[in-house]
Amino acid sequence: MPMSAPNRTHFRQTLLRTFAAMALACAATACARLAAVDPNALWKIVDLRCVPSQQATGTPGQCTAVDLDKRYVILKDILGRSQHLLIPTDRVTGIESPFVLASHAPDYWGDAWASRLYVEQSVKRTLPDNQLGLEINSQYRRTQNQLHIHIDCMQGDVSDALARHARDTPGEWHWDTLGGQRYRIMRLTSLGQVNNQANNQANNQANNQANNPFRIVARDNRDSAAMAMQTILVTGAGPSAEKDGWLVVNSALDAENGSGTAEALLDHACRVADGG
């Protein structure tokens, strides 16, 4: 039997109090175990804590930031000194969701790129764009069933290796080996709506579709099953992405010596901020 409206409100308030108590009592290792056990932990943080807090008090609660208009939150990950996550406020399972390819989908990659400032705030210095990266894991290499884009520093040796693609012809794939695994790499001259704010809304939307990494990878992975095996990383092609462009790095579980994750190309210790 469905719950009545008062009962649903009471139930939601009880859940909110429960999660608040967990936050106070939960050490980092315990929270990590919770996330591993509960694949919906990120969604519960967003939906039951951060969004209600922003709506009720104008503050993001446990999250670093909540953008109700653009429909995402930024959450500091418990792993690493500087890692943050962009998480939709809509229920979106991950890279395999058809929603990420919809014409009306938010500009998650552009918003994640703009949010790299939280990484820089964590390490208390400005970093070149080719030392910052965004990454999403495949369905088979993640612990959470809510879409989240990792925002963090790049491994220094990976940035050095990717420098050979800094002048690639835009829009063309080139294969390379990074960290012992195969990835294909494409340079873009724009990423979503990031450098097109002066254009009108229709042009912005068209550009977002053309330069959306989800849609680029989906061109030859045309169904949810194929997309579920993909991993995507985005980083600056050079120190200034506005000048040098961006690199989309893609691999998949079904690629020869491929991978369903590019997270190892990020450095959650952010050694590049210390000159390492």
Query: What is the CATH topology assignment?
Result: HIT family, subunit A
Low-confidence sequence ranges:
1-34, 194-207
N-to-C order of helices and strands: HHHEEEHHEEHEEHHHEHEE
N- and C-termini, Cα separation: 59 Å
Shape: globular
- CATH class type: Alpha Beta
CATH superfamily: HIT family -  CDH-like
- Beta strand %: 15-25%
For the report, how would you describe the main beta sheet?
A: 10 strands, antiparallel
Strands, count: 10
By CATH, the architecture is named 2-Layer Sandwich
Given helix and strand content, the structural type is alpha+beta
Mean pLDDT: 86
- Count of DSSP helices? 10
Total number of domains: 1
**Rg calculated over all Cα atoms:** 19 Å
Share of residues in helices: 25-40%
GO molecular function, one term: CDP-diacylglycerol diphosphatase activity
Pathway: Lipid metabolism; Phospholipid metabolism; CDP-diacylglycerol degradation; phosphatidate from CDP-diacylglycerol: step 1/1
Protein name: CDP-diacylglycerol pyrophosphatase
Organism: Paraburkholderia haematera
What do these coordinates show?
The protein is an alpha+beta fold and 276 residues long. The protein has one domain: 2-Layer Sandwich (HIT family, subunit A). Helices cover 34% and strands 20% of the residues. The protein contains ten helices and ten strands. Strands 1, 2, 3, 4, 5, 6, 7, 8, 9 and 10 form a ten-stranded antiparallel sheet that branches. The N terminus is likely disordered.
